Amino acid sequence: MRQKSTERRNAILQAAFNTVCARGYYETRIDDVARAAGVAKGTVYLYFKDKPDLYVGVTVWLINQARTIIKDIARQQCSPSAKLQQVFSSWVEHLLSRPTAISLIFPEMNYHHCAITPRFRQRVMPELKKLIDDLSALVRDGIQKGEFRKIDPHLAAISFLGAFHAALLGVSRYLGGKNTPERALDIFFYGIRRSV
Fold first, then answer.
1. What pLDDT, in 10s, does the model give residues 163-186?
2. Dihedral sign of CA atoms 182, 183, 187, 188 in order
3. Cα within 13 Å of Cα(173), Cβ side
4. Cα–Cα dist 165/105, whole Å
5. Do 166 and 71 share a structural domain?
6. What is the pLDDT of residues 50-87, one digit of tens each?
7. Count of alpha carbons within 13 Å of 86, Cβ hemisphere only?
């Protein structure tokens, strides 16, 4: 019974993600999500109390998917920098097909974020910290293997997320982006200073 409940919740989250990406947060109604998930509107409310709660749920769901990608790649037999490149590429690949997902993932681009800030802090920030810990472990491995210089792994993980953010913004049609995601990753790895 619990597995079916988890599957239904995930189907609602997937439908919400797809619907918000297609229509935008403000144009999406709970009815639209229920229809896309193949469930009754009341079923959505069994899992999420309102639309902002559903938004927070989708954000946590996306973070968990990102963590799964990190864990799968971390088990591979390749260098730490190759692992970070694969994580970056996988994340970008999953999101570039849905340009409006950028505003969903980076709520500072949305006015509705103000209404859900307390929920966001309570539910999303702990998951985001876990994601940063996962990335920090990859950086720490690179330091131990001598591939990366001795830096703060936590700060490097946050910088990696910043590069991912920059990559998505760099290709965003809203910002007239003409850059490729690889350029943001290149800046993460090599910085902006000229080599001496």
1. 988 887 776 655 556 667 888 889
2. negative
3. 6
4. 9
5. yes
6. 998 998 999 899 999 999 999 999 999 999 999 999 99
7. 18
Domain of residue 144: give its range. 50-190
- Reference 102, options 45, 46, 165, 38; nearest CA is 165
- Could you give the number of structural domains in the chain? 2
8 Å CB contact between 58 and 104: yes
Instruction: Look up residue 56 and give its two tokens.
Output: 């927070």
CA distance 56 to 87: 23
**Is 133 found in the same domain as 77?**
yes
For residue 122, the tally of other CB atoms under 10 A from its CB is 10
**Residue 33 sits in the same domain as residue 120:** no
Amino acid at 181: P
Q: How far apart are CA 51 and CA 101, in angstroms?
A: 16
- What distance in Å separates the CA atoms of residue 57 and residue 104, rounded to the nearest whole number? 11
Tokens of 191: 């910085």
Residue 50: what residue type? D
Q: Rg of the Cα trace of the chain?
A: 18
Write out the two tokens for 24.
């935008």
Is it the case that residue 160 has pLDDT exceeding 90?
A: yes
Report the CATH number at residue 89: 1.10.357.10
DSSP 184: H
> Is residue 123 assigned to a domain?
yes
Judge if 93 and 158 occupy the same domain. Answer: yes
